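Researcher: Here's my situation. A collaborator sent me these components and asked whether they could plausibly form a single complex. I don't have experimental data yet, so a predicted model of the whole assembly would be a useful starting point for our discussion.
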Amino acid sequence: MILDKIHDEGAFRAALRQWLAEVLKAEQAKPARDARTYHRNQLWWMSERNKVGLGTPHWPRAYGGADLSLRNQVIIAEEITRARAPSLGQFTISLNHVPATLMKWGTEAQKARYLPGVSQGVIWCQGFSEPGAGSDLAALRTRAVRVGDHYVVNGQKIWSSHSMYAKHCILLTRTDTDAPKHKGITYFIMDMDTPGVEVRPLRQANGLAKFAEIFLTDVRIPAANRVGPENEGWDVAQTTLASERGVLSFERNERLRYMMEDFFADALRTQAAWLQDCELRREFMRLFAEVQGCRRLMRKLLEQSGTGSPAAATTVPYVKLINTELRRNVGDFMIRAVGPEAHSHAPGFDELSSDPTFTYLTGLGGTIAGGSNEIMRNIIAERVLDMPKG
Amino acid sequence: MNIDSLRDELAALRESIAATLTAECSRQAVHDFFDTQRGLDERLWAVAAEQGWLGIGIPEAYGGLALGAHGLDILYRQLGRNMAPGAFVPTLAAAQWLADIGTEALKSSLLPQLIRGGRTFALPLTLEHPPLPLRNGELSGLTSLLLSARSPSIAIVPAQEDGVRVFALIECGKPDAQFVPADIWDKTRCVGRLTLSQALPLALITERQGSVAAALRHCLCLAAAGDCVGGARALLEQTVEYLKQRVQFGRPLASFQALKHRCANLAAAVIQAGEMLDQAVHATSDREPSAGMWACLAKAAAGETLELVAQECLQLHGGVGFTWEYDCHIFLKRALLNRDIAGNAASLRDRAADYFTAATLGGQTTAELRL
């Protein structure tokens, strides 16, 4: 057992490496070429991790986790990325947002009903953004009206990743149209197979259709599925959003390091022409140093979060801003370094793809998703530098 | 020393240096010095000696505080914050270099004096120039530009004899070795050349496959990068404060989103430069083989960052940013000089790329981190 060894870092890492070396021989561990394969691979990867207790190791024991310390979570993330193993991208909401929210706000019945499913491969999605409520999330208008022991929901959600595969959705609705916009919001768990829920995938600039629109027409959600009190959904949503920046973005940072190291080693092996271009070489080294800086900043953030330091809140927007722009810039660099060959399309599908254009385009998505970088700049200016609201 | 007590000691050091510099090196004092080039640099030097700052990175055996790269980094950043005049960068970098590669005799004769404030150094601004020929053990001619004290006690001069590269330590201020300061824009520091006529070096340090020059560059990179990061942070803070005070169109400039976003971008650049410097400092302190590479990369980034911040902050101040009375022009001139210290960004990244290539081919990793 791998988790038996957490008290000895060397043995723990060795056990992880041994397991990874074995499990990654499988065909499903290779970069996927289409959506269906990607989805199947994700379910396979979750089940493989489960076999060795690494499905939800960061959760409390009471909910099927191993109560793993932050440090040990980091070790797992380090070894997973070092092995160039897949992420659990389709389980992002399931593994992070759902437990963080339910453990704080959920009823015992909700926790018992929904948490165990995650490690069994249940995918969740998030229904927060709307066509009229992007950066201004609190302007959301999807309406929920209480009728007996149900709420009846009408409206439209957008940018809901993996919702075509999701069994449940964490949903924000407006229940009081007269209250100030942050005060009339209620938070629900919605089963995606409820009549009136329609998912329409959206095609993205990088070729994927990872996210979708969700149309809601007279959808009946039991009142028992409300998370937190009526009209206090905004506070619940803050808990959800705060969970986005932990070990999850740590993994993304680590992958960028390996992508650059692999890109360079590959260039040396193939005697790539760009190595003779001193401007490109310098740019590579600048970006490599920036990635290292960002990895340090990420570790600082984890340390701050781990000790409950208020400094964490000020580090978060920096990490998001720096990491996403860096990924975009690395992709842009790789396109120019590879040269005209970069135009020949090697379709990428997930974080394992090192296709330059895919990396660049996906990086651009990162600067918009999860709070656009403009919002991050507002947060840095107003909450860190203490500049007044306009 | 365990890591926690070191951390506490470093925090106390930072606090004490900051308090001392607030008192001894105010903005007004720096502006006065900028116009007169009198007084403040010598006063600060005396304070530094008295407080033990000159020995922060030096082993205890020579009278130092043995706080290593971490301790020195704190000092460099604080000096940069305060636009401190004087020969801190060349002298402390030279001292660290001597502590790293000098002979026992050199270390025990020079370092204790240096720590007491009795020795200042001049050393090559960039290390990119051809060496002077050493003939019959003597040096003659004009050196490349040296980063220096106003009247340095010892200059480090790259030389060559029979194809062998050496670093000559030359005692200055004697008829055979006269330091001639150049009139430079950054009046807080001093750059000049040494005129040598059959000068007999105090000592020669022989190059060992480039490692001696690399060690000097490494020390200089850490010093200049710390100065840049400290300066950039201070200038940005002060600019944000100015934008909060300055009212136009009936509201503080700081409330305009266009300006907020520029400040946020600068803040992110400063954070990044600080993290890259941390990487170099940790690698140095842990004696990692890649430490020199990280020092080059940190200096390249820090130099670019201070220049960006200084230029942007001057613009964000508007008209007053262009006046002699405000700090912007001093930071900007320090930035322009700092950019060249230890070599420009391009040459430093070239060196880093060479190291990275060799490491990659040798199957060595350079980027391991501990949480």
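Model: Some features of this prediction you could bring to your collaborator: The first helix of chain A runs from residue 9 to 23. The radius of gyration of chain A is 21 Å.
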